[in-house]
Amino acid sequence: MKRGLVLEGGAMRGLFTAGILDVMMEAGIEPDGIIGVSAGAAFGCNYKSRQSGRALRYNKKFARDKRYCSWQSWWKTGNLYNAEFGYHIIPTQYDIFDDKAFEENPMEFYAVCTDVETGKAVYKKLEQSNQLTYDWIRASASMPLASRVVELEGMKVLDGGVADSIPLQYFESIGYARNVVILTQPDGYVKEHNKLMPLMRIALRKYPKMIEAMDKRHLMYNKELVYVYEAETAGRALVIRPDEKLPIGHISHDPEEMQRVYDIGRAAGENNLDRILAFYSNHNS
User: Fold this and answer.
1) 245 contacts: CB under 8 Å, gap ≥ 6
2) C-alpha distance from residue 279 to each of 139, 173, 178, 179, 231 (Å)
3) Nearest-angstrom CA–CA distance, 159 and 271
4) What was the pLDDT predicted at 283?
5) Contact between 181 and 4 (Cβ < 8 Å)
6) Euclidean distance between the first and final Cα of the chain, in Å?
7) What is the structure's pLDDT at 285?
8) Dist CA 272 CA 275 (whole Å)
9) What share of the chain is helix, strand, coil (3-state, %, to 5)?
10) C-alpha dihedral sign at 50, 55, 57, 61
11) pTM of the entire predicted model
Protein backbone atom coordinates (compact mmCIF):
# COMPACT_ATOMS: atom_id res chain seq x y z
CA MET A 1 0.00 0.00 0.00
CA LYS A 2 1.75 3.14 -1.23
CA ARG A 3 1.93 6.26 0.92
CA GLY A 4 1.36 9.55 -0.87
CA LEU A 5 1.65 13.26 -0.26
CA VAL A 6 -0.86 15.49 -2.08
CA LEU A 7 -0.03 19.20 -2.28
CA GLU A 8 -2.58 21.84 -3.22
CA GLY A 9 -1.38 25.07 -4.87
CA GLY A 10 -2.25 28.60 -3.84
CA ALA A 11 0.69 30.74 -5.04
CA MET A 12 2.44 32.29 -2.02
CA ARG A 13 0.10 30.44 0.36
CA GLY A 14 2.33 27.53 -0.63
CA LEU A 15 4.88 28.73 1.91
CA PHE A 16 2.52 27.26 4.52
CA THR A 17 2.99 23.93 2.75
CA ALA A 18 6.76 24.48 2.59
CA GLY A 19 6.89 24.85 6.37
CA ILE A 20 5.08 21.54 6.88
CA LEU A 21 7.26 19.77 4.31
CA ASP A 22 10.45 20.95 5.98
CA VAL A 23 9.30 19.56 9.34
CA MET A 24 8.49 16.25 7.67
CA MET A 25 11.84 16.13 5.87
CA GLU A 26 13.75 16.93 9.03
CA ALA A 27 11.90 14.09 10.77
CA GLY A 28 13.06 11.67 8.08
CA ILE A 29 9.57 10.95 6.73
CA GLU A 30 9.77 9.41 3.25
CA PRO A 31 6.45 8.97 1.43
CA ASP A 32 6.47 6.77 -1.67
CA GLY A 33 5.32 9.57 -3.89
CA ILE A 34 4.31 13.23 -4.12
CA ILE A 35 1.87 14.97 -6.41
CA GLY A 36 1.95 18.76 -6.48
CA VAL A 37 -0.18 21.40 -8.14
CA SER A 38 1.17 24.86 -8.97
CA ALA A 39 3.04 26.09 -5.86
CA GLY A 40 2.64 22.57 -4.49
CA ALA A 41 4.83 21.34 -7.35
CA ALA A 42 7.23 24.30 -7.28
CA PHE A 43 7.90 23.93 -3.56
CA GLY A 44 7.25 20.20 -3.24
CA CYS A 45 10.05 19.23 -5.63
CA ASN A 46 12.48 20.21 -2.86
CA TYR A 47 11.19 17.25 -0.85
CA LYS A 48 12.42 14.77 -3.44
CA SER A 49 15.78 16.59 -3.62
CA ARG A 50 15.84 16.66 0.21
CA GLN A 51 16.52 20.41 0.43
CA SER A 52 14.84 21.60 3.58
CA GLY A 53 14.47 25.39 3.77
CA ARG A 54 15.16 26.04 0.10
CA ALA A 55 11.67 27.24 -0.91
CA LEU A 56 11.58 29.89 1.79
CA ARG A 57 15.20 30.87 1.29
CA TYR A 58 15.06 31.83 -2.39
CA ASN A 59 11.63 33.45 -2.14
CA LYS A 60 12.85 35.73 0.64
CA LYS A 61 16.15 36.45 -1.07
CA PHE A 62 14.53 37.51 -4.36
CA ALA A 63 11.28 38.93 -2.93
CA ARG A 64 12.02 42.45 -4.16
CA ASP A 65 14.16 41.53 -7.15
CA LYS A 66 12.47 42.70 -10.36
CA ARG A 67 14.13 39.87 -12.24
CA TYR A 68 12.13 37.36 -10.20
CA CYS A 69 8.57 38.66 -9.99
CA SER A 70 7.50 42.05 -11.30
CA TRP A 71 5.16 43.87 -13.62
CA GLN A 72 8.24 44.74 -15.66
CA SER A 73 8.77 41.03 -16.24
CA TRP A 74 5.11 40.59 -17.18
CA TRP A 75 5.30 43.50 -19.62
CA LYS A 76 8.51 42.27 -21.27
CA THR A 77 7.96 38.51 -21.25
CA GLY A 78 4.28 37.84 -20.57
CA ASN A 79 5.20 36.15 -17.29
CA LEU A 80 4.80 37.84 -13.92
CA TYR A 81 7.27 35.33 -12.48
CA ASN A 82 10.17 35.51 -14.91
CA ALA A 83 10.52 32.10 -16.51
CA GLU A 84 14.22 32.26 -17.31
CA PHE A 85 15.37 33.82 -14.05
CA GLY A 86 13.05 31.93 -11.71
CA TYR A 87 13.23 28.47 -13.23
CA HIS A 88 16.62 28.32 -14.92
CA ILE A 89 19.01 30.86 -13.38
CA ILE A 90 18.06 30.58 -9.68
CA PRO A 91 18.18 26.74 -9.53
CA THR A 92 21.47 26.52 -11.45
CA GLN A 93 23.37 29.58 -10.18
CA TYR A 94 21.96 31.24 -7.04
CA ASP A 95 20.19 28.56 -4.99
CA ILE A 96 21.26 25.38 -6.69
CA PHE A 97 18.71 22.60 -6.99
CA ASP A 98 20.23 19.21 -6.17
CA ASP A 99 19.63 17.36 -9.43
CA LYS A 100 21.58 14.30 -8.28
CA ALA A 101 19.58 13.89 -5.08
CA PHE A 102 16.31 14.37 -6.96
CA GLU A 103 17.15 11.62 -9.46
CA GLU A 104 18.58 9.18 -6.93
CA ASN A 105 15.63 9.44 -4.54
CA PRO A 106 13.19 6.62 -5.45
CA MET A 107 10.25 8.78 -4.33
CA GLU A 108 7.91 9.39 -7.28
CA PHE A 109 7.10 12.99 -8.13
CA TYR A 110 4.19 14.25 -10.25
CA ALA A 111 3.37 17.78 -11.36
CA VAL A 112 -0.17 18.62 -12.48
CA CYS A 113 -0.80 20.95 -15.42
CA THR A 114 -3.86 21.85 -17.49
CA ASP A 115 -3.90 21.23 -21.24
CA VAL A 116 -5.31 24.50 -22.60
CA GLU A 117 -6.59 22.82 -25.78
CA THR A 118 -8.67 20.21 -23.94
CA GLY A 119 -9.19 21.82 -20.53
CA LYS A 120 -8.16 18.49 -18.96
CA ALA A 121 -5.51 17.73 -16.37
CA VAL A 122 -2.07 16.45 -17.35
CA TYR A 123 -0.27 14.38 -14.71
CA LYS A 124 3.43 14.50 -15.54
CA LYS A 125 5.73 12.10 -13.74
CA LEU A 126 9.13 13.75 -13.38
CA GLU A 127 12.08 11.39 -12.90
CA GLN A 128 15.05 13.29 -14.32
CA SER A 129 16.14 16.69 -13.08
CA ASN A 130 16.89 18.93 -16.04
CA GLN A 131 15.65 22.02 -17.86
CA LEU A 132 12.58 20.16 -19.17
CA THR A 133 11.59 19.14 -15.64
CA TYR A 134 12.02 22.73 -14.45
CA ASP A 135 9.70 23.84 -17.26
CA TRP A 136 7.02 21.28 -16.36
CA ILE A 137 7.09 22.59 -12.79
CA ARG A 138 6.93 26.16 -14.14
CA ALA A 139 3.95 25.24 -16.29
CA SER A 140 2.14 23.76 -13.31
CA ALA A 141 2.51 27.12 -11.55
CA SER A 142 1.77 29.33 -14.57
CA MET A 143 -1.44 31.14 -13.66
CA PRO A 144 -3.70 32.34 -16.49
CA LEU A 145 -3.38 36.10 -17.14
CA ALA A 146 -0.12 36.20 -15.18
CA SER A 147 1.68 33.77 -17.51
CA ARG A 148 2.02 32.88 -21.15
CA VAL A 149 0.93 29.44 -22.33
CA VAL A 150 3.84 27.00 -21.97
CA GLU A 151 4.55 24.65 -24.88
CA LEU A 152 6.10 21.35 -23.79
CA GLU A 153 6.44 18.00 -25.54
CA GLY A 154 3.74 18.80 -28.08
CA MET A 155 1.28 20.17 -25.52
CA LYS A 156 0.20 23.66 -24.53
CA VAL A 157 -0.23 23.85 -20.77
CA LEU A 158 -0.89 26.18 -17.84
CA ASP A 159 -1.70 26.06 -14.10
CA GLY A 160 -2.71 22.57 -12.98
CA GLY A 161 -5.14 23.99 -10.44
CA VAL A 162 -7.59 24.87 -13.21
CA ALA A 163 -8.33 21.21 -14.01
CA ASP A 164 -7.44 19.39 -10.78
CA SER A 165 -6.70 21.53 -7.73
CA ILE A 166 -6.47 18.72 -5.17
CA PRO A 167 -5.48 15.55 -7.07
CA LEU A 168 -6.24 13.06 -4.30
CA GLN A 169 -8.60 11.00 -6.45
CA TYR A 170 -6.00 10.67 -9.20
CA PHE A 171 -3.30 9.61 -6.75
CA GLU A 172 -5.59 6.99 -5.28
CA SER A 173 -6.34 5.74 -8.80
CA ILE A 174 -2.66 4.92 -9.39
CA GLY A 175 -2.21 3.03 -6.15
CA TYR A 176 -1.60 5.60 -3.43
CA ALA A 177 -4.00 4.31 -0.82
CA ARG A 178 -2.92 6.37 2.21
CA ASN A 179 -2.32 10.04 1.58
CA VAL A 180 -1.38 13.07 3.60
CA VAL A 181 -3.16 16.01 1.95
CA ILE A 182 -1.93 19.55 2.57
CA LEU A 183 -4.45 22.30 1.81
CA THR A 184 -3.77 26.03 1.86
CA GLN A 185 -7.27 27.20 2.75
CA PRO A 186 -8.92 26.76 6.17
CA ASP A 187 -11.76 24.39 6.99
CA GLY A 188 -15.08 25.72 5.71
CA TYR A 189 -13.58 27.52 2.71
CA VAL A 190 -15.81 27.54 -0.38
CA LYS A 191 -14.41 28.74 -3.72
CA GLU A 192 -16.53 31.28 -5.58
CA HIS A 193 -16.86 31.90 -9.31
CA ASN A 194 -13.85 33.71 -10.75
CA LYS A 195 -14.59 37.42 -11.00
CA LEU A 196 -11.93 37.82 -13.69
CA MET A 197 -13.73 35.58 -16.19
CA PRO A 198 -14.40 38.48 -18.63
CA LEU A 199 -10.64 39.03 -18.87
CA MET A 200 -10.01 35.28 -19.03
CA ARG A 201 -12.36 34.99 -22.02
CA ILE A 202 -10.34 37.60 -23.86
CA ALA A 203 -6.89 36.30 -22.89
CA LEU A 204 -7.77 32.65 -23.60
CA ARG A 205 -10.06 33.23 -26.59
CA LYS A 206 -8.03 30.76 -28.70
CA TYR A 207 -8.75 28.01 -26.17
CA PRO A 208 -12.50 27.57 -25.58
CA LYS A 209 -12.04 24.37 -23.54
CA MET A 210 -9.71 26.21 -21.19
CA ILE A 211 -12.25 29.01 -20.81
CA GLU A 212 -14.89 26.41 -19.97
CA ALA A 213 -12.61 24.82 -17.36
CA MET A 214 -11.87 28.22 -15.82
CA ASP A 215 -15.57 29.06 -15.74
CA LYS A 216 -16.36 25.84 -13.85
CA ARG A 217 -13.26 25.75 -11.69
CA HIS A 218 -15.09 26.69 -8.50
CA LEU A 219 -17.51 23.80 -8.98
CA MET A 220 -14.64 21.35 -9.53
CA TYR A 221 -12.76 22.65 -6.52
CA ASN A 222 -15.69 22.49 -4.13
CA LYS A 223 -16.50 18.97 -5.33
CA GLU A 224 -12.91 17.95 -4.62
CA LEU A 225 -13.16 19.36 -1.11
CA VAL A 226 -16.11 17.03 -0.52
CA TYR A 227 -14.05 14.10 -1.82
CA VAL A 228 -11.18 15.02 0.50
CA TYR A 229 -13.56 15.22 3.46
CA GLU A 230 -14.98 11.78 2.64
CA ALA A 231 -11.48 10.29 2.34
CA GLU A 232 -10.52 11.88 5.65
CA THR A 233 -13.65 10.52 7.34
CA ALA A 234 -12.97 7.05 5.93
CA GLY A 235 -9.40 7.14 7.27
CA ARG A 236 -7.72 7.02 3.83
CA ALA A 237 -6.40 10.56 4.11
CA LEU A 238 -4.85 12.73 6.78
CA VAL A 239 -5.61 16.37 5.99
CA ILE A 240 -3.60 19.34 7.24
CA ARG A 241 -4.95 22.84 6.63
CA PRO A 242 -4.39 26.27 8.18
CA ASP A 243 -6.62 27.16 11.14
CA GLU A 244 -7.60 30.44 9.47
CA LYS A 245 -7.05 32.36 6.27
CA LEU A 246 -3.33 32.76 5.68
CA PRO A 247 -2.03 36.35 5.95
CA ILE A 248 -0.60 36.55 2.44
CA GLY A 249 -1.89 37.13 -1.09
CA HIS A 250 -1.12 35.32 -4.33
CA ILE A 251 1.92 37.57 -4.71
CA SER A 252 4.19 38.94 -2.00
CA HIS A 253 7.31 41.08 -2.03
CA ASP A 254 7.62 41.11 1.77
CA PRO A 255 10.19 38.66 3.23
CA GLU A 256 8.76 39.06 6.73
CA GLU A 257 5.27 38.18 5.49
CA MET A 258 6.69 35.11 3.78
CA GLN A 259 8.46 34.08 6.97
CA ARG A 260 5.25 34.41 9.00
CA VAL A 261 3.31 32.13 6.66
CA TYR A 262 6.16 29.62 6.57
CA ASP A 263 6.29 29.65 10.38
CA ILE A 264 2.54 28.96 10.54
CA GLY A 265 3.23 25.94 8.34
CA ARG A 266 6.11 24.77 10.52
CA ALA A 267 3.89 25.01 13.59
CA ALA A 268 1.20 22.97 11.83
CA GLY A 269 3.82 20.40 10.83
CA GLU A 270 5.16 20.11 14.35
CA ASN A 271 1.66 19.89 15.85
CA ASN A 272 0.71 17.12 13.41
CA LEU A 273 4.02 15.27 13.27
CA ASP A 274 2.96 12.42 15.55
CA ARG A 275 -0.29 12.03 13.59
CA ILE A 276 1.62 11.87 10.30
CA LEU A 277 4.07 9.29 11.65
CA ALA A 278 1.24 7.14 13.02
CA PHE A 279 -0.80 7.48 9.81
CA TYR A 280 2.08 6.41 7.57
CA SER A 281 3.22 3.65 9.93
CA ASN A 282 -0.16 1.96 9.47
CA HIS A 283 0.24 1.75 5.70
CA ASN A 284 0.30 -2.04 5.66
CA SER A 285 -2.84 -2.43 7.73
Assistant:
1) 185, 186, 189
2) 32, 19, 8, 9, 13
3) 31
4) 56
5) no
6) 9
7) 43
8) 5
9) 50, 15, 35
10) positive
11) 0.96
